[in-house]
## 1
Amino acid sequence: MNILVIYFTQSGQLKDILDNLVKDIKDEAIIDFAEIKLEKPFPFPWTATSFFDAMPECVLQIPSPIIPMPELASKQYDLIIFGYQPWFLSPSNPANSFLKSEWAKVLKGKPVITVIGSRNMWLNAQEKVKEDFERLGATHVGNIVLEDKHPNMVSTLTIIRWLFKGQKKASKRLPDAGVSDADIAATQQYGLPILNHFKENNLASLQATLLQKGAINLRPGLIVLEKRGVSQFPKWAKRARGKGEPGNPERMKVIKTFQRLLMTAIFVLSPITNLVAKIQTALKMKQLMKEVAYFKGVQFEPGKLK
């Protein structure tokens, strides 16, 4: 069995997740790792300016040139694992750039498992990835989501510390940033079920097995909150993009306004937003539970977050 693992990482966290995922099957399969690399990589740690200036192209799914990956055409793969992170409620720019590149044709006709490393909001990003899979002729057979399980405000502060200072480890008042070490190690439990489903020619039921093992923990209120962001982010992305390319002074005025409004929404309006989301969740619980079931699955229906 030949498995291809395609991924992008800046901090190394996603590579740790993927290494644990295949730990129990590496002696029973040939596993190749292929890292997505941009011709002009983003900085890490980021500056606030460079981070928020990446938003328009990310949200509008405008790809950047990637370093060629001709090795992907050198072998026939039986299964592909695609690891990525959401940025600004969309697939990260490197992940999107790969899916829009000529090298993504390796996915055609192949079963693909997605592995997401996120802070908390990943639904819209996954919908966009599913749409690309359909365009590319891939079959989405599984999804595993790892997220930061700390409260929203705490995870926001720790991700800011990590992004802009490069500090993942706990400080005096804040815990470690990102996915916990225990959750990363726990991804090892999914390897053998993946292998067994493949051997039994039963990938159609793989996601049900992964869910039984806890592959996705989705709170209904997250759907309500993400729908709000999905409705606003494209407006700001188009406005900024209309002012020019990254770094353009006129564009940066829009980016700065977006940054201030986003930070206000997170740190000032968040309690109100969460309360409204809880009320909406209670009033629409039956509908939301149907949506939870959909987002935990691998099927694709356009417009589910509108």
## 2
Amino acid sequence: MAEFRLLQDRDKEQASALWQECFGDSDGFCRWFMSEQWNGEYSVAAVEEGKLVSMIHGRPYTLRIRGRAIPAVIMCGVATAPAYRHRGLMRRCMELFERNARDKGAFVLFQSPVDFRIYEWCMQYPSSASAIITSEKARGMRGCRYAEDSPCCEGFAEELLIVYERIMKGYSGRVVRSTEDMRSVLRGHTADGGRLVRYIKEGKTLGYALYYGAEKEVNCIEFMARGRAARGLLSTLGAMAKGRRMMVRGTAELLLMGVPKGIRGSLANTTAMGALNVPGLLHELAGFDDVTVEVTDSVIPENNGVFTFGGKPSKGPVDIKMDSGRLMQLLCGYADIAQLEGQEKAEIVNRLAAHKLLDRLPTLQCFTAEEY
């Protein structure tokens, strides 16, 4: 019988082996993760006869949602050893993970899932969309004279953080980063062979791209630039690809500027969120008591019930009905109440209350950079 518990330092070797078995990441990346991103207080595991067979890694962050600082936890490294799958171990791990994070004060869970469908049962749904810029065989593009390529180095952290904060300002769901957070991001890319391209004009860094150059692909997972800087960095990455596939993930506004010839752009969901503390989120992100919502949650019992949008328990009439994950989409600005009703993800009982929500909780530009 499996034991479900928090990860401990003595589990690091087994956790690293399970990570590589399931995801195939490099030794360098795993060493970086286990030394810098490891947080046993937020991470959980299933152990059978001394063997770590399933795990979820977590780490606390702060998200800026609708302009408010919200305590959150990232979920990553969700893995079960192949021989132990389809036995419900991950479901039990998820229940422990969410309960533990909530008890430690997190209001929101976020992650970058490979397959969103896997997490629908625990009501973690899309919360931000990214521009995905691709070229199957990038050819004919020229590097920009303002673009400077170099190995990733944590010494660039301060100047890159300025760019990150400028580009991300105004986005709901963004991760609040410190200079040390940015240093850690750069060290993580360094550990896995990542490189950095900066767009520099008149001695000032106006944009950057963190990328990996593999045999068949140039893959950029953090692209922070707009306008001429964005076009210059995209053409430079395309020139670097030299016939290989190119993939860039950035903010949705990249699609509005017009992508260079030979490059395709599309919008794709890249981040999911789940509500860990419904009353707390309602209080912080809505804060009004004249509309009520009946919430259902399959994992956190305290999230079930009728609440005002100020986070207070209510015995009055119900205005809106939805599950906790759809409420999270509403609160973060990914969808408004009309969109959720149109998708049959919310039930409107009181039309007047729905009009209030349309006015008070409109959709926003939502973007969360990929973190580990």
## 3
Amino acid sequence: MRSDKHHKKNKESSSLHKFTKVWSILYLLVTIAFAGILVYMDLLPFKYLCMAIGIIAVLLLIIFPAMFFRNFKKSRKIISLVLSILLMLAYGAGIVYMSGTIDFFSKITKIGVQMEEYYVVARKDSDYKDENSIKGKTVQTYLSNELNYSEAKNKLKEVVDVKYEMTESLSELADGLIDQSYDTIFVSEAHYTTICSEKKNFRSDTKIIYTVEVEKETKDIVKDVNVTEEPFNVYISGLDTEGSISTVSIPRDYEIKLPSKQNVLDKLTHTGLYGIEETIASVEQLMGIDINYYVKVNYTTVTKMVDAIGGIDINSDYAFTTHGMGVYYAFNEGENHLDGSMALAFARERKSFSDGDFQRNKNQQIVLEGVLKKALSSTTILTKYTSLPNAVEDNVEINMSQKDMQKLIKMQMDGMPSWNIQKQSITGTPDSKICFSTGDYYVAVVDVDQKSVISAVDKIVAVMEGEKK
């Protein structure tokens, strides 16, 4: 009887050993994979990376031999097995999380092909419904010597046989469609946007029946620096790695020149219609400084970013209620806690203020300051870091390299430096002018105040040179 029990005990022990031996190999591979991706990710400061690798190695030396070799007690094997299971779950989650982070960096630093759209527009009550319905017809288009217009017209003609007639006046083009002088018109996204903003009900009374996409000419506009040792700026924010940030707002209607269009007059908000490179080149020309990097965001970015970091605290210059945003938000003068939707409404409002867009610029800076302070705090980086990529990855584009972004995050995690944020706005005089993107429509423009521009540049330079703390 004793012999049978002894045999059974040895058999159980042998089965446990076989299982733990196989499991130990799996544990070893997962551990190596986790340590490898931790090093490859290159986000932890060196001292923290050494500590992490050291702890992983010690745990491996304690657990692996007990499972792999036979001459360890059963109790030690079982304890090691349980610990290895828990660690493998943690390592597996870490591998998934870090892989997601690397994928996030890859997504936001990948600059996609930029396209400019051109629309075939018809009256909403017409029988025209797609490109086939205009076959053999005459399409009225805007008289423009832009190469992209010519390319767009040729692309449409490749799809469907049409004839073109040209009109010099953008307003006449719009009026002609509405009063049925023209059956369809063909215009760029920029000119369509202008018409919709200047001609009441044009958008609702018409329909886009076909879209032509023309690839915009793009070029690398990065002015690289060593981001952890040298100061640099980012459109719209200029950052100083020594600890100061100077945020400069330019009114959306600010008069600007388009370098790629022989320096014709337009306004800042229209530059984006011709691509981010045009925006950067225009601002560089206005301010006389190089812009190192840019970040492209949209309304969704603001909302999701603020929600992802748990809201922000800001100080409002005025008590006011928002207008025309569906939901009406009321803000107090002084301290307010904002979620994502409230932050967006606060940043967009202008009708509540006597100086309109100028105060909106200030409020946008206030929101940016709130986001930066919250996002760069040690607790937020550690507790909210996993939620940030998911919140903004589809709504952000940055032309800084993935490697440089990793360096900045590592630097922030290493010293957790505080940031001295300084705000300023460029001002000017409201006016009304015809712009390149608006055809013969007069639109609101802010005339350049050269003293204001120079003052802003002086402050940016002072921050970047470390003179303003």
